[in-house]
Please model this.
Amino acid sequence: MADRSGTKGTAVAEITLAVSRDVVAARQAVARVLKERGLSAMRITRFATAVSEIARNAIVHGGGGRISIYLDPGKAYLRVECRDDGPGIEDVTLAMTEGYTTAGGLGRGLGGAKRLSHDFEIRSAPGEGTTVSMSVKL
Amino acid sequence: MSGVTSINLVENALLVSIQDDVTDTEIVELQDTLSNRIAKENVKGVILDISSLEIVDTFVGRVIAQLAGISRLLAADTYVVGMRPAVAVTLVELGMYLPETRTALSLTHALSQLRRG
Model:
């Protein structure tokens, strides 16, 4: 996986994820930026929903985390990176499987977030937290 | 801003307007409050106005589906009104079809169906 440090682009916003109100703040921040960039309601809703799923996961499974929003250097994508220092995911492929859940949810969040994003990547290992990087085309 | 949700009795139904900044905690509280009011006020229907919601993710979708299931057990029908097209498209992409709920395009439509029932 490519190391994007230094090439992440311009930071637009950063939100700490600790309580459920922070999930609202994260998706609203993303929606606001996309609105400013003139995206259609359809595309804003799809990506903001994906961000909502991931932000909630960081709180529920990761014990809290941080979400950063970047405008990529070419300004063609908005990238959202969500990190937590939780227990990490043992088997990412299994976690992405439709219907698989560890917290009594529907098991549709991760796979759904991937489908609603332009590109989507999870980096995780047991004990090392989880980082989800996702983007939408501008 | 807070996700304060209003609940009003309109004819024989509880009209619930969910605000866009509603949190997971608040929507779960809403489920409890509504369950109690459906039983106590003996209503025939619950109308969830989600026109303010720019997004409905799997969590909120699941709570809406559960709420509809609870209403059904308490002999009330649940109508979802005002769903934005973008929300409908996204819900389907998430595999959420909310089978327990009835959808109506407007409040008027939902109320007229409840009168008929």
In short: The domain at 6-116 of chain B is CATH 3.30.750.24 (Transcription Regulator spoIIAA).
